[in-house]
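User: Hey, my collaborator sent me this sequence without any context and asked if I could get a structure. I don't really work with proteins. Can you help?
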Amino acid sequence: MSARAARKHLSADPVLGPVIAQVGAMGLKPVKDREPYEALVRAIAHQQVHGRAAEAMLNRLIALTPDHPFPPPARVLALEEGQLRACGFSGAKQAAILDIAHKSAAGWVPTRRAAARLSDEALIERLVALRGVGRWTVEMLLMFTLGRPDILPVDDFGVREGYRVAAGLEAQPKPKELAAIGARWAPFRSAAAWYLWRAADLNKTNSFKAPSAI
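Assistant: No problem. I've predicted the 3D structure and written it out in structure-token form, which is a compact way to encode the shape of the chain:
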């Protein structure tokens, strides 16, 4: 995704333009060397826990295979019973991680190279079949790991809150409403989502300036 092209396109939008004027350059930078398998395991670790707790669990998992930067699927599947639990993962997280490892070893979870040949929707349809993985998780994978430029996670609270703030609304738009609104941001909807997150962040600290104040 060309950050310059995305900014030029979105700056013309009456809602996003003022946000971009405040935020400036886009900082959405995917992790270019991360495989989908690793991204999904990391996402499971972070579900419903504080970020530091999730990273602590992941660090314990990584320590189990010091000869690898991240435990490959086969090594996860070969772990002795109780080892995942000892890392701090709940029963539900253990089941999800094992399912992801199993499906990765079988080729159902594509490699980064294989994923490049699949469309956004094809990847979403395939990966939501994994245990513990929903559409939002796959959308985050598409944006932050695979660098797909046209993803708008309309179920994300922060994205909807950002639009509410930027548009000066009393209530957040419903996901379907935001999907319809966001059609005009294509083919740079990932950048649009990033700017809406920033608008929500600014509003938390009372730093967001309404368009009339800019």
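In plain terms: The two ends are 28 Å apart (CA to CA). You can pass these tokens on to your collaborator as they are.
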